[in-house]
Amino acid sequence: MIEIALASGKSLFFASDNHLGMPSLEQSHQRERLFVQWLEEIAPKAGALFLLGDLFDFWFEYKRVVPKGFVRVLGKLAQLRDQGLPIYFFVGNHDLWMGDYFEKELGIPVFYKPQEVSCAGKHFLIGHGDGLGPGDKGYKRMKKVFTNPFCKWLFRWLHPDIGVSLAQYLSVKNKLISGAEDVHFLGEDKEWLVQYCKRKQAQKHYDYFLFGHRHLPMTIDLGGGATYINTGDWIHYYTYAVFDGQKCQLMVRD
Questions:
Q1: Residue 166 belongs to what domain range?
Q2: Does residue 5 form part of some domain?
Q3: Residue 216 maps to which CATH number?
Q4: How would you list the strands of the sheet with 115-119, edge to edge?
Q5: pLDDT score of 4
Q6: Number of domains present in the structure of the chain
Q7: Whole-model pTM?
């Protein structure tokens, strides 16, 4: 359980699915600059920042190497942490090979599973959202392979120029990874994250469920005082969620 004491005038901020590096480093620089500007704008009023996965379109940590690029966002996150802002990072399906770089270099804890958060009397369940709920069996099988220690060890033997290029290609071309066929609202009965949240709500009450992964901003009343919010993405929608101590809602960056 993550417990946050929210100071007067402060809010929690949630964002996901920037996919920096996609479709190329050069083409993602504009989105990176916009996100850094947003981080600067929210800093004075942020009590904590939650990054809900897929900040990068691909991330793999070799023993002494990390992917090239992203210096603007990494530098800004480091600055915010140095200024005392709590930041929490949730691994997504594109950056699931995250190691200890964020924790050691930036002081940002990294989570691989959904976490419970308590703040201002409200209870949250927060994560990226991949592989949760019913269905999505193809991706679930593939994730087991990708996260297998032996498979990770084999990949690490590839030269980074080869490994990163191969992974970036697959990230775009493989629909199980990219989710390219899954960007439209499917209806509550077919939205597997909605089904997951309803099942969790039946076991324990949460006021808010916050996830990314779907690339589709949505707010759904689950009944019983619970709300599911998907934070959308920073590719098409530039949306994020804000909890001001009383309510949590989606916002769009101007």
A1: 10-252
A2: no
A3: 3.60.21.10
A4: 2-4, 115-119, 122-126, 208-211, 226-230, 218-223
A5: 96
A6: 1
A7: 0.89
